[in-house]
Amino acid sequence: METLLTPEELEIALRSIGAERYHNRHPFHGLLHGGKLNKGQVQAWALNRFYYQSRIPMKDATILARTEDPDLRLIWRQRIIDHDGNEGEDGGIARWLKLTDALGLDRNYVLSGDGLLPATRFAVDAYLHFVRDRSLLEAIASSLTELFAPAIISDRVAGMLANYDFVSPTALAYFEKRLHQAPRDANFALDYVKREARRPDQQHAVLQALRFKCDVLWSQLDALHHAYVAPGNIPPGAFDPVRLSAMDR
């Protein structure tokens, strides 16, 4: 990029990346929301997604540690509270564990990470490294996938409640909170990026950061689809719903 975009043009470019690359377009989500997965496949999704959820406050703590602006820290730290909870109130991580509980997964097993797909771990850890190693502007821009979250959350809740008798509104409580939290966080980050990306190279870096984050989310679903939808591809040591059912009998 050699031409400086206006803030409005930059926002249009960011939203076009989401329209093309956000993981709501992945076939696995079509199966999940359309009731085409069995319980074991939904368990695999929830188990692997927990690793991502558990690393979000670590990512946000890294951003806090990197900024010298107390006003930015004051606003950004709310993200950690949203996920970790505060003063007896459950956060997003605890609510996600209620989902894995409702799906019949042992909580200690979920917390251990023993059943993760290797690609899940690599993708999520790559995101943490990106936030640690790239510029603060790029780190904040990578969170802009939240711009596109409300639509997928609405589809997920409606689809799962309509199609799976093993899912309840209580089990999906995580998503109800995110319908309000994600737009708040995304709007703040978007305003920051539009204000602070003042040069063409910075704007290019911002766009690349959002592409990278979309790739992180997409690659997790690629791994789930390969392992649990296509037969015979579960890696050694990863969660195996068939084997788990046999052990329970």
Question: What does this protein look like?
Answer:
This protein has 249 residues and is mostly helical. It has a single domain (12-231), classed as Heme oxygenase-like (Heme Oxygenase, Chain A, Up-down Bundle), CATH 1.20.910. 73% of the residues lie in helices and 0% in strands. The chain has twelve helices and no strands. It has helices at residues 7-21, 27-33, 39-66, 70-84, 92-102, 107-112, 118-133, 136-141, 149-163, 173-196, 200-229, 241-248. Helix 3 (39-66) packs parallel to helix 7 (118-133), helix 3 (39-66) packs antiparallel against helix 11 and helix 5 (92-102) runs antiparallel to helix 10. Pfam families: TENA_THI-4 (PF03070). It catalyses: 6-(2-amino-2-carboxyethyl)-7,8-dioxo-1,2,3,4,7,8-hexahydroquinoline-2,4-dicarboxylate + 3 O2 = pyrroloquinoline quinone + 2 H2O2 + 2 H2O + H(+). Residues 13-222 form the Thiaminase-2/PQQC domain.
Total count of strands: 0
* CATH arch. level architecture: Up-down Bundle
What would the principal axes of the Cα set say about the shape?
Answer: globular
CATH-defined fold name: Heme Oxygenase, Chain A
* Overall pLDDT score: 95
Tally of distinct domains: 1
Helical fraction: over 70%
